[in-house]
Structure formats: C-alpha cells, structure tokens
Design brief:
The chain has a single domain, classed as MetI-like fold (Orthogonal Bundle), CATH 1.10.3720. The chain is mostly helical and about 290 residues long. It is flat, with a radius of gyration of 24 Å. The protein has 14 helices and two strands. It has a two-stranded antiparallel ribbon with strand order 1-2.
Length: about 290
C-alpha cells in the first residue's frame, strides 16, 4: 500500500501535523475567542450570555477610540520602516572597507529582545539622566518627559519600536539584493543604466516581492503592538498610550472581564482579516504575473 500511494501519502504525512497545530492553536482559539465575546465572564466562574452587549459597550467606550487612534499612529509611523530598511540595505551592501563592521552594528536590534529595547529606550527618554537629557543639556534646555506626556508618549514608544523593525526590513532587503539576477544587472549596464536609473528600473522591480513581504510584516507588527507598551508605559499616562492589544490584555487580566477583552480581540482580528485578505489577493496576482 505504501509503495502504491507514497506519492501522495508522503506530503500528507508532513502536512497533517502542521495543519493540526494550526487548527488547534490558531483556528480553534480564534473561534473560541469570538464565542467568549458574547458572554460576561471573569475567567473562572460561570459564563453569562450577554449577546452583543460587550460590543455595544466597546463602541461607546472612549478608551476604545483612543486605542484605535494609537493603532493608526503605529501603522502610519511604521510605514517608514520598509523604505528606511531598503536605504540601509543599499548602504551596507556596498563593497567598501569597514562595511562588515557597520553591517554588524545594524544587526544589533535583531538580537535584542523587545523587552530589552524598551528598557534601553526608557533610559534614553529619562528627562533627568537619559541620553535625551544630555542632548538637551548641551543647548541649555530641559528635556521633555516624553513618556509622561499624553500627547507625545505614543510617538516616543513607536520611535523606539521602529529601531528593530527597520533592522528587520534591512535584513529582508539584503537577502533580496543578494538574489538579484546578474544577467538583468548586466543588461542594464549595457543599456547605460547607472545610479538612480539602475536602482529604479533594474533593482527595485526585482525587489518587489521582498518589499511586499516587508510591508506585510510591518503592518502586522504595527497592529499587534503590545510588548513595547507593556515595558515602557503600561498604557499610561491615563491610558493615552494604549492600543487595542494592550487594552484587551488590561481588561482581561486586570479587570477580570474576559468577555469584554475577547470583544476587543475580535475587533482587532477583523481589522487584521481585512489586511490579510488584501495581502493574499495581491500575492496571488503577483504569482500569476511571474508565471
């Protein structure tokens, strides 16, 4: 039987464990989260059916719109990561003396835990002894307490999170640059492409798929932002730096409102589904174009 059907049994045996894991951890957990959002539940006792009450309360909650606004700020600012990552990749890909050392320095954010990055930037933003205070002190000024200012705290946290995100995008583009077609590059040089023309008409078209992957990873990273906020501000001051993921965590863990937290998670999941659907459609179209 094995010899007769091994052409299809072999791939099935490799795929089934992954499908079971994905179905259990992702699909089943997502369905369970949506189901819990229709209950009033403290996470321990009996669930009490409330229907759409959690959603009605959520859409009437001012904190929800603060969190949603902060998610949009994260998304807009994170859009700087792919172009900056591309610029750094083009820089460190040059065959120049000392470039290996410079490349290793840009890799540092990737080997640091996000918690470490948050702690480091917490020191940087310290208005008394941090690097920002030293810079302002050179000009005889007092550094602002960015993490205590409700108007600037989100921008400060996103700026800290951009450091490793830019480095990640740089690595993606470096991989793409190392896989460029030498034949196409050579043909471009024969046609007189140099500098900007070479980059725009020869290099960037070959980095299209890599760039799209970098964009997708950046968008998902912005929407699921949590750990930097937990380390640097814990959602403060007065909830002004919360995003949907952190609000979900706070409502579920600290307020014992798992149904309400699940409603927030469902809304965030719906937002991500819109992006994922668009992403898959574009990827399928790109695959068809390359055939």
């Amino acid at each position: 039987m094995w010899k007769k059907h091994r052409n299809w049994l072999t791939p099935v045996l490799f795929i089934v464990p992954g499908c079971i894991l994905f179905g259990t951890i992702i699909i089943a957990s997502s369905v369970e989260s949506v189901w819990i959002s229709f209950f009033d539940w403290d996470g321990v006792g009996q669930k009490s059916w409330v229907g759409l009450a959690n959603y009605f309360e959520l859409f009437a909650d001012p904190q929800f719109y603060v969190s949603l606004k902060n998610n949009i700020i994260w998304l807009v600012m994170f859009m700087a990561a792919p172009p900056l990552g591309l610029a750094l990749a083009l820089l460190v890909n040059q065959q120049l003396a000392g470039m290996r050392i410079l490349k290793s320095l840009f890799f540092i954010p990737l080997v640091l835990a996000t918690v470490t990055v948050g702690v480091v930037f917490g020191w940087v933003y310290d208005p008394n002894y941090g690097l920002l205070a030293l810079i302002f002190g050179l000009f005889g000024a007092t550094a602002p307490a960015l993490l205590a200012d409700e108007h600037f705290v989100t921008f400060a946290v996103v700026a800290a999170a951009l450091w490793p995100q830019i480095a990640f995008c740089m690595v993606l583009f470096l991989a793409g640059l190392n896989n460029l077609s030498s034949d196409i590059i050579g043909a471009g040089r024969v046609d007189g492409a140099r500098g900007w023309n070479m980059l725009w008409h020869v290099v960037l078209p070959q980095l299209r798929q890599v760039g799209f992957i970098a964009l997708a990873v950046t968008v998902v990273g912005a929407l699921r932002s949590f750990d930097m906020i937990a380390v640097m501000t814990s959602g403060g001051p007065f909830g002004s730096s919360e995003v949907l993921a952190y609000q979900m965590y706070e409502q579920s863990i600290f307020s014992y409102r798992f149904g309400y937290g699940a409603a927030i998670a469902t809304v965030l999941f719906a937002i991500m589904i819109v992006f994922i659907t668009w992403y898959l459609r574009v990827m399928v179209r790109m695959e068809r174009e390359t055939r």
